[in-house]
């Protein structure tokens, strides 16, 4: 027997689920949110942890290597990165974020069950909490269960590091091999390099950061190599063996690499395996992602998917965008937003940001495009911040001056790309740049130079 019926049941209390639940509740819907932990993997093993580690490691490296230029301090011993203190700091930030989420949900009137849910049938969940199991009916449901790290399928006698167990480390490893050259792999490679580890990235394809413009990636690889990071491409890992305090990684080209630790980052998959989606008539594609309409509706017309488990995009801004789309569709206010509008920002060394199409993708789609490439070299703000290298690349339609994409590398890349993301969404043509006034000295001053090039 169904214990209770709700207008909307949201499964998963990460950013996408919380945003969707709040918006629907604020518009008068009776909403139930189900998850074991408010904040989900986002707070405890996802973006919050990786972004904070990148921030802390940036401060650490700047204080150790840069501050000595103008601070007269003599250390009794060399400084070292303290994982215990880092975890304490991150736990404090996470606790505040979780409390903010809880307060927002309570203010919106969202009901919460701390537990798990599986589909009983097309319009019913079986919910299990600490005390019992019972049925909950729904008119509409939203799956917001996020994503999980993909397993390696590689024989290993060594316990591998990933974003869920990083704090099992007690000190910076002397050397780390990062398996996977995607967004997460390059972020953690940056983290380990900053805290003093020797880093090697292994990528099975011929290109790291697959969705980023190839010229930006080439510049990134060159600068990483100058920073002492080795990048091995076009090979896969055959097996991993622990020998004493060292780990041997055997590669498909019959070579082997040695390191103290191995960090695994070969991609993420939707966290939907325990939902019994078949019982609800929800079909998946071959890669395990749900088949979705443009408004993110599944093959069960009453069930939607948002965030990471859509498989469309795994950045936090997409979590919020997709939640907004679905909430509006349920409220019968159709609002379809392309994931291409989501800026992709990577706080690496150097920083990388992108939005829209790359030059290669634009040409693949048969678009007659032109490219502006403008470097930051000798740009005043870059000189002041001690980051002399970087460039921005803009892809646009020559006939309409419509911006198709923007890719940037170097300090200030995120701010610059965000500006172009707004222009793309607002359909502002590139030649309108000359009408704007930009602050000085900031990286946005580059835009004034670009306006001159367009003119």
From TrEMBL:
<feature type="binding site">
    <location>
        <begin position="145"/>
        <end position="147"/>
    </location>
    <ligand>
        <name>FAD</name>
    </ligand>
</feature>
<dbReference type="InterPro" id="IPR016156">
    <property type="entry name" value="FAD/NAD-linked_Rdtase_dimer_sf"/>
</dbReference>
<dbReference type="InterPro" id="IPR023753">
    <property type="entry name" value="FAD/NAD-binding_dom"/>
</dbReference>
<keyword id="KW-0274">FAD</keyword>
<keyword id="KW-0285">Flavoprotein</keyword>
<keyword id="KW-0560">Oxidoreductase</keyword>
<dbReference type="GO" id="GO:0004148">
    <property type="term" value="F:dihydrolipoyl dehydrogenase (NADH) activity"/>
</dbReference>
<feature type="binding site">
    <location>
        <position position="308"/>
    </location>
    <ligand>
        <name>FAD</name>
    </ligand>
</feature>
<feature type="binding site">
    <location>
        <position position="203"/>
    </location>
    <ligand>
        <name>NAD(+)</name>
    </ligand>
</feature>
<dbReference type="GO" id="GO:0006103">
    <property type="term" value="P:2-oxoglutarate metabolic process"/>
</dbReference>
<dbReference type="InterPro" id="IPR036188">
    <property type="entry name" value="FAD/NAD-bd_sf"/>
</dbReference>
<feature type="binding site">
    <location>
        <begin position="180"/>
        <end position="187"/>
    </location>
    <ligand>
        <name>NAD(+)</name>
    </ligand>
</feature>
<dbReference type="GO" id="GO:0050660">
    <property type="term" value="F:flavin adenine dinucleotide binding"/>
</dbReference>
<keyword id="KW-0520">NAD</keyword>
<feature type="active site" description="Proton acceptor">
    <location>
        <position position="440"/>
    </location>
</feature>
<dbReference type="InterPro" id="IPR004099">
    <property type="entry name" value="Pyr_nucl-diS_OxRdtase_dimer"/>
</dbReference>
<keyword id="KW-0547">Nucleotide-binding</keyword>
<dbReference type="InterPro" id="IPR050151">
    <property type="entry name" value="Class-I_Pyr_Nuc-Dis_Oxidored"/>
</dbReference>
<feature type="domain" description="FAD/NAD(P)-binding">
    <location>
        <begin position="6"/>
        <end position="321"/>
    </location>
</feature>
<dbReference type="InterPro" id="IPR001100">
    <property type="entry name" value="Pyr_nuc-diS_OxRdtase"/>
</dbReference>
<dbReference type="Pfam" id="PF07992">
    <property type="entry name" value="Pyr_redox_2"/>
</dbReference>
<dbReference type="Pfam" id="PF02852">
    <property type="entry name" value="Pyr_redox_dim"/>
</dbReference>
<protein>
    <submittedName>
        <fullName>Dihydrolipoamide dehydrogenase</fullName>
    </submittedName>
</protein>
<feature type="binding site">
    <location>
        <position position="267"/>
    </location>
    <ligand>
        <name>NAD(+)</name>
    </ligand>
</feature>
<feature type="domain" description="Pyridine nucleotide-disulphide oxidoreductase dimerisation">
    <location>
        <begin position="343"/>
        <end position="447"/>
    </location>
</feature>
<comment type="similarity">
    <text>Belongs to the class-I pyridine nucleotide-disulfide oxidoreductase family.</text>
</comment>
